[in-house]
Design a protein that fits this description.
656 residues; alpha/beta; 7-stranded mixed beta sheet; 5-stranded mixed beta sheet; 45% helix
Length: 656
């Protein structure tokens, strides 16, 4: 069983989507080539080892003649100008310049005046040396290999390549294996993923149920003239389960499933990507009804003719081929193309028009019920302690994707295993939440003055979150260095809300400026630790003024500047449709909002100075404070709990 975060590993064995690997032409060609290569290697080895110059030690002729006079030669064999032999007694001395020891066999080269010399022959007869003469071949085996067999082997290989030149990219062509589609094929099996294995994503599964019904009973739709969407685009953040949802659709329909990544189409050779697309869709039509799934389609489907320098010719050819293949589907062909992306904004408009990817399914972050289902799926094989409350974890992990929830369960199980526990308890899950949201603690020592500065900074954030109406409860305050920050204040919402009011936004900016305000109150100076707070508050204030119309001076007008990258097909320069004076007014309004927030932060911290002092002392003692401890130190909040429901939809972390 899986959830909406991962990819199931229980599908049937996968195989390439191209033609069968047992092509007899490929087998005959490969076998014949292998036999020829082995024969050539054996011939070359035999020719090299049979050469007289590889017979024992190579010694100078003068050394040989000297040993002959000492009656140490037993047998000699003449090979033209080369003489080989065997010692009757291995000499004690070695020739000058020779390394190593002498062996029983030797060879030497006869000088020109010694070939056929009667004096040498008389000396050999006098010493009773056995004489053998070998005929000199006109062409040796080594020459035969290099001058005859190698050209023949080269001609044979070229003939096979030219014989396939009529269809070099076909199944039997010389590049058939290279350009064949690398898509993996998954057949129906008892372990195939189903919709019931996908926790959450209720709306997305309902949108895909019609695709399942069409693949099961196409005649039910075609007899009424209905046209099923040729393509379905799954859009959502990373880790939300788009790939698993596509496999579950195939498993629910009981049809073959071809899976490929968009980047696998692209190669350095022009035309290969388009050929792979043709091969993939040809194989899919032969296996119909089926589902073709293209993951990360933005790798090949981005806007054509865009980017610096024009675009990527090979990528655009591949995209054109995908568009052509989807247009080529005949009425009644039961091939559905599913694609997934988290960059919907950079896709080519031709890819999204009706008749291609007709239906867009949003796969968003799971709601509370979805998170609860995902946690239940991942904890089925995890022994849990009685104190583990999955419903509380589902409420606490607002904004988590399915992949992050899977990591949460895994990190908690790893911690329990490191501490030799028999079951995973709630403390392990709290530790895992810190790992996922804030990162692992840095293993370094922080000096006391720096720790005190961080404590005041984080206490400023926490007190302002506690003192203001419209800010969600503080989940945790820590002055343990994690990631790139020395401390963190983690605020967790308690309700599923997706809209923000102006008062809550301004309260959040006040909370962001709390760390900087606390530093100014205590140390009468600012530190570089407020950099992230300033960046976040400035970005939020600018959106309030220039996009959401939350300024009386600017009014309800959107002044959005282009923030896209030119390499994604957007403007290379900063594009705007308003004057310099308007830009100046926006900047002044942003400055006013942030300065007012900072002043309000100082006023609130002055009012609640006693609570901030107590929180700082507790932080210096324990370094980590959870929600229950914070509420015990600060006491009840100075206002009634808000009944509004416009809280953020994900955790907010303020790094000091």
């Amino acid at each position: 069983m899986s959830d909406s975060s991962g990819k199931p590993g229980n599908s049937s064995p996968q195989k390439p989507a191209g033609p069968p690997s047992g092509d007899p032409r490929r087998v005959n060609f490969s076998s014949m080539t292998l036999v020829l290569l082995v024969a050539a290697v054996l011939v070359s080895i035999f020719a090299w080892t049979s050469s007289p110059t590889n017979y024992g030690n190579t010694v100078p002729y003068s050394f040989f003649y000297k040993q002959l006079q000492k009656d140490r030669i037993a047998v000699v064999t003449f090979h033209g100008e080369i003489l080989t032999g065997r010692w009757k007694m291995i000499p004690d001395e070695t020739p000058e310049g020779m390394t190593g020891t002498l062996v029983e066999q030797f060879n030497t080269v006869l000088p020109p005046d010694s070939i056929g010399d009667p004096t040498l022959m008389q000396e050999l007869h006098t010493r009773n040396v056995q004489i053998v003469a070998m005929p000199v071949a006109v062409v040796g085996l080594g020459d035969l290999f290099f001058w005859v067999l190698m050209p023949l082997l080269f001609v044979f290989l070229m003939w096979n390549m030219l014989r396939r030149s009529a269809d070099p990219f076909g199944a039997g062509g010389m590049m058939g294996g290279f350009i064949r589609s690398p898509a993996r094929r998954f057949e129906k099996s008892e372990k195939s993923a189903r919709f019931e294995d996908v926790a959450g994503l209720k709306a997305a599964k309902q949108d895909l149920q019609e695709v399942v019904d069409f693949l099961r009973e196409p005649a039910r739709f075609t007899r009424l003239g209905a046209k099923i969407p040729k393509g379905v685009l799954l859009v959502g953040p990373p880790g939300t389960g788009k790939t698993l949802l596509a496999r579950a659709t195939a498993g629910e329909a009981g049809v073959p499933f071809f899976s490929i990544n968009g980047s696998e189409f692209i190669q350095m050779f022009v035309g290969v990507g388009a050929t792979r697309v043709r091969d993939l869709f040809k194989t899919a039509r032969e296996a119909a009804p089926c589902i073709v799934f293209i993951d990360e389609i933005d790798a090949v489907g981005r806007v054509r003719g865009a980017g610096v320098g024009g675009g990527h010719d090979e990528r655009e050819q591949t995209l054109n081929q995908i568009l052509s293949e989807m247009d080529g589907f005949q009425q009644g062909e039961t091939v559905i193309v599913l694609a997934a992306t988290n960059r919907h904004d950079v896709l080519d408009p031709a890819l999204l028009r009706p008749g291609r990817f007709d239906r867009h399914v949003t796969v968003d972050l799971p709601a509370r019920d979805g998170r609860l289902g995902i946690l239940r799926v991942h904890t089925r094989k995890v022994p849990l302690h009685d104190d583990v409350d999955l419903e509380m974890l589902a409420r606490t992990t607002m904004g988590f994707s399915g992949a992050e929830l899977e990591k949460l369960v895994n990190e908690s199980a790893l911690r329990a295993a490191r501490e030799n526990k028999k079951r995973v308890d709630m403390s392990d899950f709290r530790y895992a939440i810190d790992i996922v949201t804030m990162g692992a603690p840095r293993d370094e020592k922080v000096e006391r003055p720096e720790k005190e500065l961080t404590a005041w900074h984080e206490a400023g954030h926490a007190v302002l979150a506690w003192a203001q109406e419209g800010i969600d409860p503080v989940h945790k305050v820590s002055i343990v260095p994690r990631g790139r920050s020395l401390g963190v204040t983690l605020v967790m919402p308690e309700s599923e809300i997706h809209n923000l009011g102006e008062r809550r936004l301004k309260a959040r900016i006040v909370m962001m400026m709390g760390g900087r305000a606390a530093e100014k109150m205590i140390y009468d100076e600012y530190s570089a630790g407020a950099q992230n707070d300033i960046e976040q508050s400035t970005s939020l204030a600018r959106r309030m003024v220039a996009r959401w119309g939350m300024s009386a001076i600017i009014g309800p007008v959107s002044f959005r500047q282009s923030e896209e990258h030119p390499f994604l097909g957007k403007e290379m320069h900063t594009y705007r449709e308003f004057s310099e004076e308007t830009t100046r007014q926006i900047d002044l309004e942003v400055q006013r909002i942030i300065k007012d927030a900072e002043q309000r932060a100082i006023e609130l911290l002055t009012q609640y100075r006693q609570q901030m002092d107590q929180l700082v002392q507790a932080l210096l003692e324990s370094e980590d404070l959870v929600r229950e401890q914070i509420e015990q130190i600060l006491g009840p909040r100075p206002f009634l709990p808000s009944k509004e429901t416009d809280s953020p939809a994900e955790p907010v972390s303020e790094a000091g």
